[in-house]
Automatic annotation (TrEMBL):
TPR repeats lie at residues 384-417, 422-455, 491-524. This is Tetratricopeptide repeat protein. Pfam families: TPR_1, TPR_11, TPR_16. Residues 560-580 have a biased composition (Basic and acidic residues). Residues 1-26 form the signal peptide. InterPro entries: TPR-like_helical_dom_sf, TPR_rpt.
Length: 616
């Protein structure tokens, strides 16, 4: 999909800021949350540079405060207004963004963004004809044309012109990927307008072609949810469950659809997917934002989401999406704030609670995180994700016995032979191995491979453990080689292969592989340390010391014990056989040394990225 030209006129500095920023405040809320006041910059240049510095550091909330200071000094500078408008909108300061958009409406550089912002504001206020006028923008790109047509259709519906709204969708022709978005929006509009036959036909058209789910999983799941809700309200339980089942066939673990199916089975009253023109327009912005929410497109997606939030500030899917962007930007406090806005009765609430716990942990609020997730495991005793999230925290805190207990529960709650449970066995195997309980760890690693034979993390861990313990040497080395074949650009797994060669005394082979690993992952201290050891054994002692020095300044920094060992090697070098004897002693004890811990962590996230569809 070609990225929209809508925001192509962003200044370079604004673009750089939007790449890294996580959203902060509720769109449409003119009262900012309490936070420490930024210092007064005093001069225009000082305020402007401070804003840019905050942007570069990902702190858009502080940046917008400095922009406000700069504008108070020079309210007429158009370049300053342009940068500030984008920053305000991305930060969720919608009213401030609207005020600047009104001034920049006819500015050739940013008029498209300004007019769409003004149109969304008019739609939010119920001034539908004014919104239609603002959305009448010439020479749009493919994505712009689709967005503008759908926003206009919702404004037509709000003005009471249902036939015009549906006709607007029918007349929107363009790229092949228009189809799923057009049919989905037409179905929602017809449903809100009280035309169930037309709504049913449009939504069923989406569900009849599962291939469309690859174009937009969110639109496909949205259509399934909307049709299920429509049929449930019509009293056709079988048809409602069939529609929900179509969504679950594409995304079996999609919690909001599971919750909707359960509610339909219980005979509860089911609300419509969208209840107003404003909510429908928000869904348009949300679904198109999700379609481009990756890579460089995330900049545009963030603005789409914030515009949508101005129309539907409590939409749980939208809040989840904004939290996700904040997490990717390492703005964890912002992510937590978004999750906490999700309504308690939403199907997204449970996932939000678990993500809050994980975000608290990575925000270095470890005690609070542990307490939060322990409570979640008690509140949701039958939820596999609650126990695995808590196990994740226990493992990170080296409480491997408690991690194993939580994973025991998760495995009992899971389908025993479901391929997706491989990761549970793998993680429990690690927990057992760290407790030197190899008799329990090895069967779990084997079970993980039986369920999913081509998992490079498991192949790497089990293969390396065998080599390190001087067991099943050929099979273990073959496993590590296979892991490297599956992940040829993974420096951590290549490090395991090199270190296995080192353990076997094949130092020339070790050097070859460890040099590859360092090229791919140059700052990892463990890999540099390993290469230094291998260099020493092939007589390249000066290069060995260089690698050990690099290990001391690597990222993440080596722990205290590792630092002490590296410093000792820099001082005294390696004994010719002493380290090999130590390795052999470890092997005889049956305690496997751990493969590169970063390799172990790759790809083993407990909670999948949440899909984001509107739910109760």
């Amino acid at each position: 999909m070609t990225l929209s030209r809508l925001f192509r006129t962003l200044s370079a500095s604004a673009l750089a800021a939007l790449v890294s920023v996580g959203a902060a405040r509720a769109a449409g809320d003119t009262t900012p949350p309490q936070k420490p006041a930024v210092p007064a910059a005093g001069t225009l240049s000082g305020a402007y540079l401070a804003a840019k510095t905050a942007q570069a550091g990902g702190d858009l909330a502080t940046a917008t405060d400095f922009y406000t200071q700069a504008l108070s000094i020079d309210p007429t500078s158009e370049p300053l207004q342009q940068d500030a408008m984008f920053a305000y909108l991305a930060d969720g300061r919608f009213k401030d963004g609207v005020d600047l958009a009104a001034k920049l409406r006819d500015d050739s550089n940013v008029s498209k963004v300004a007019r769409i912002t003004l149109g969304v504001d008019a739609l939010r206020k119920g001034d539908f004809n004014a919104a239609i006028a603002e959305f009448d923008i010439v020479n749009p790109s493919d994505l712009d044309a689709l967005l503008l047509a759908h926003l206009t259709a919702w404004a037509e519906l709000g003005a009471g012109r249902v036939d015009d709204a549906l006709s607007r969708i029918d007349q929107t022709k363009g790229a092949p990927w228009y189809a799923i978005f057009n049919d989905y929006q037409k179905g929602l509009i017809a449903d809100v307008a009280g035309r169930p036959t037309a709504a049913r036909a449009a939504l069923q058209k989406v569900l009849d072609d599962q291939a469309l789910a690859r174009t937009s999983p969110d639109a496909y799941l949205g259509a399934a949810e909307a049709l299920a809700r429509l049929e449930a309200r019509a009293g056709d339980k079988q048809a409602a469950l069939k529609a929900a089942g179509a969504g679950l066939a594409v995304a079996p673990n999609y919690t909001p659809m599971q919750a909707l199916r359960d509610r339909i089975n219980r005979g509860e009253t089911i609300e419509p997917a969208v209840a107003s023109a404003q909510e429908g327009a928000a869904e348009t912005l949300y679904v198109l934002g999700q379609a481009i929410n990756r890579g460089d497109g995330q900049q545009v997606a963030l603005l789409y989401f914030q515009l949508a939030k101005a129309l539907a500030p409590r939409n749980p899917a939208l809040l989840t999406a904004l939290a996700g962007i904040a997490e990717q930007a390492q703005q964890l406090e912002d992510a937590i704030a978004y999750y906490r806005e999700i309504p308690e009765n939403s199907a997204f609430r449970r996932t939000a609670d678990l993500q809050i716990g994980l975000d608290l942990w990575y925000a270095d609020k470890k005690d609070e995180a542990k307490t939060h997730l322990e409570r979640a495991a008690k509140d949701y005793p039958d939820d596999v994700r609650a126990h695995t999230a808590l196990a994740d925290i226990y493992s990170a805190d080296k409480q491997f016995d408690q991690a194993a207990e939580q994973l025991d529960t998760a495995i009992k709650l899971s389908k025993a032979d479901d391929a997706d449970t491989w990761n549970l066995y793998y993680q429990r195997g690690i927990a057992y191995e760290r407790q030197k309980m190899w008799d329990k760890a090895e069967p779990d690693f084997k079970k993980a491979l039986k369920l999913s034979p081509d998992q490079p993390q498991v192949l790497n861990y089990l293969g390396y453990s065998w080599v390190d313990m001087n067991r099943n040497l050929k099979e273990g080395l073959d496993m590590i080689k296979r892991a490297v074949d599956l992940r040829p650009n993974d420096g951590y797994i290549i490090d395991s292969l090199g270190w296995a060669y080192y353990r076997l005394g094949r130092y020339d082979d070790a050097v070859k592989q460890l040099e590859r690993a360092v090229l791919i992952t140059p700052m990892d201290p463990t890999i540099n340390d390993h290469l230094g050891d291998a260099y020493w054994h092939v007589g390249r002692k000066r290069e060995a010391k260089f690698q050990w020095e690099r290990a001391l300044v690597g990222q993440p920094a080596p722990d205290a014990d590792a630092r002490k060992e590296i410093e000792a090697k820099l001082q005294n070098g390696l004994h010719d056989h002493g380290d090999d004897e130590t390795n052999q002693a470890k092997a005889e004890e049956g305690a496997a040394a751990t493969p590169n811990k970063d390799a172990e962590a790759k790809g083993t996230s407990i909670l999948p990225a949440s899909k984001g569809k509107t739910s109760d």
